[in-house]
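# nightly structure sweep
# worker-07 picked up a monomer target from the shared queue
# config: single-sequence mode, recycle default, output format = structure tokens
# input follows
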Amino acid sequence: MTTPLAIHGHFYQPPRENPWTEYIDGEPSAAPFPDWNARILAECYRPNAYARIVDAYGRVERIVNNYRNISFNFGPTLLSWLEKHDALTYQRILQADRDSASKREGHGNAIAQAYNHMILPLCNERDRITQVRWGLADFRHRFGREPEAMWLPETACNAHVLGTLIDEGLRYTLLSPYQAERVRPLGAGQDAWHSVADGSIEPGRAYRWFHPDGSGRSLALFFYDGAIARSVAFEGGLASSQAFVERLRHAVHGDHLLVHAATDGESYGHHTKFGDRTLAHALEIEAERQGLAPTNYGQFLAHHPPEWEVELKPGPNNEGTSWSCAHGVGRWYWDCGCHTGGQEGWTQQWRTPLREALDYLRDFAATVFMEQGGELFLDPWAARDAYIALVLDRLRDREAFLAPLARKPLSAEEQERALTLLEMQRQAMLMYTSCGWFFNDISGIETVQVLKYAGRLMDDLLDLGITPPRPSFLEILARAESNIQEMGNGADIFRRFVDHSRVTPRSVAAHLAIASLVDGENERLETAGYEVHLEEYRREARDRLTLATCRIRLESCATGRRHDFALAAMHFGGIDFYCVLRPFPGMPRMRSAARRIWSDFASASLPVILRTVAKQFGPDEFGLEHVLPGARRRIAATVFGNLVHRFADHYAQLYDDNRHTFEMLRQAGLELPWELRTAAEYTMSSRFEQEIRAQQESQDPAVYQRALEMAAEAERLGYKLDTEAVGRLFGTMLAGAVELAVAQNDESHWQTASTLLTLAQRLRLHGAYDRAQELLYLGVAENGVTVTPTVRDLGLALGLAPRVLTEAPPAAQTA
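# output follows
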């Protein structure tokens, strides 16, 4: 007899996008990745979508989709990012839910999550309801079905929160065992209650929690096994799949119907390296050996409805409890003692004034929303609940969206105002993302992020014609002292980081004009949350000076607000840029001003040109610091590229002039000084990469003969070539060749893929071949690819185990 097993993974990252641009500006602490989303994608989200099960020799026997075998939730804001940045992983997650629903009587593995991870017991009623409704709407949009359950951020709940879940039609949720107060069999008398306040609640069953309104409506609650969850999170429980499953098996006892644990999804690969592989091997192979059968909570609940009732701990002041704060939900509004480290003497006293400042701003914005929104909407708060439809689809017809929500047909100006009000409310909720309070100091990137949403909210107020309460907000925030002396207080941090991150329509237009001096006239349909229309563009160069004039029209993708500017931008060489703009004065005046500038540009001195540009297109001035990070990096790459080219020329000259000397030293058994070795290896690596790129991804081995000779020469001389970039290039080429071969399933295409891999090996390239390996494995396992000798040799070279290439793995193991 098998025991049902459910492992829940909570996959979540806070929204990290700059609220003025919807791009992540970059997070150096995530190096070598550009930001933490990208890093955890590489370490966790994608590896779990393509989890490897390897044999004793490290060869891949199976590639499995872990999301098919576990219960999981993904934060809506994280899924939104994934959809844009890794469509393969995103689709793999959605497919896992479809596959599990098909396998488990219609009960998919995915459950919903409250939208942007606000601590729901600390929300006011309006925000709590909207957070739940937005989370449900996002789930329906992505997974195409009704959710059965919702993950509560940090499992934080009280009676109001659970009541909202019942009101919204949800069947169950998951909580910590330490959140339960007492239990009794359903229908038993008052004397049947017994305390489980010490965390001793039996985790193997569902419990009924009744709505406090006396209606008899209820919600099923699962209390995860705390010992298992603690083992995964803090005790190295994922070091071995056998040990992990043995730990699960020991949880089976008595009438224990279900073995389960809720865990941080990032445990499987990010917090524990190769935790994704441990999970795959445990659930695909070891669980069955130990008499455990993976399921999900929905399927279990369908067969085992609650037979016990539970009451929860109310928490201090009836605020509720959570899984990550021993003091209820104190971690998110006072210095309760919970923290993630920091230096001796550090406190989290900053948490209280931070929340007070945001509460003050939220309530100010709510008053504006009710006053102005009341003139436009039949029900402003119902309109906010519905606004998730536009957040999920910015291309949706805004007028059609507003029509059923409005008191009357809205003019273009009223539509813009209505959408600005709704967008302001989105910022008001995002600024309560829980990570803002979780860590050590108010200067941390997560707390700065929630303050950025506050800054964006105040800009929305300005767009509505309302003076934002910035002085009062900063006065409250100034009481939040940083533990780092040089950071000052919350107000200092706001001015230092938030004001620096602010992007205005003017700076977006200046960014586009300056970037065009490097990129050229590039048709940009959307930038920083604006639809872009570039007109009257002219660009010319004279010596080191480049000048451009243009008209730029911007339209906000969120609100439809329009901005129109006339601009002139100049590049003086290097990192010296200058841009001026003014509101568009009309086509006749703009063309007249442009003619005067271009007349001077032909022959006038630089000071004269500058005066003319400032007079005709000023007064607002901008420089490189106003360019958005992506374009700033491209400009820097261009500038640095020129410097690198000059250094490379010097290195190459040094190497060529002294090559014979280098060879003589090597033959004499003498090691080159690192300075000379650097010159030699840099020069040879650069020439090697240039030679390969010059072949423009040709699949003809003959064209790489010179590159092969260069690689052989480097090995003979004992030089180490930097092949990382060309290795990635060949990895992409190989994946494309395997994908085509799987689709066509003919020998010629397989020969091409095999030739490419052989060539990469001869060139001593250690590229990223994971995608080629996945495509070949899935081709054999799912798409009926015939395992010919060529396919077999290619698979073995890519690291697949021999058994994969002799018999197709069972379909259940390959999705």
